[in-house]
């Protein structure tokens, strides 16, 4: 389901639109956003969310179209390894007390700025 239009300018604007749309997707499903763009020396986690006993680390990939493939295709094995390492850093010293899941939100933004979100749960 497309999310309402927003202006698309720079790459960072596109990324923000994708993260907003993915966050809204999770919010409608009862997830609480714990962190967005969480950073440490290893890099950045896009979204960290929780619902009940499930903690989700979500990598968001956003594109304007599919001429370079679908956004989720950019989450290759090296990126997956990095997200796992970032999740370990995020959890350092914390007892998550829940199940951990790694999702990929594949977001496509059309010319009018409307975002379509496809979430791949437990993607890696």
Structure description:
The chain is α+β, with helices and mostly antiparallel strands and 124 residues long. It has one domain: Trna Endonuclease, Chain: A, domain 1 (3-Layer(aba) Sandwich), CATH 3.40.1350. It contains two helices and five strands, in the order H-E-E-E-H-E-E. It has helices at residues 11-28, 77-91, and strands spanning 32-40, 43-51, 54-63, 99-109, 115-120. It has a five-stranded mixed β-sheet with strand order 1-2-3-4-5. A hairpin with a 2-residue loop joins strand 1 (32-40) and strand 2 (43-51). The longest helix is centred in the first third of the chain and has 18 residues, at 11-28. The relative contact order is 0.24. The model has no long low-confidence stretch (mean pLDDT 91).
| Cα end-to-end separation | 24 Å
> DSSP strand (E) fraction?
35-45%
Structural class: alpha+beta
**Main beta-sheet strand count, sense and barrel state:** 5 strands, mixed
Order of helices and strands: HEEEHEE
Which shape, going by the Cα principal axes?
globular
Q: How much helicity do the residues have?
A: 25-40%
Radius of gyration: 14 Å
Number of helices: 2
- What is the CATH topology? Trna Endonuclease, Chain: A, domain 1
Give the overall average pLDDT. Answer: 91
- The CATH architecture: 3-Layer(aba) Sandwich
Unreliable parts: none
Strand order of the largest sheet: 1-2-3-4-5
The count of strands amounts to 5
CATH class: Alpha Beta
Number of domains: 1
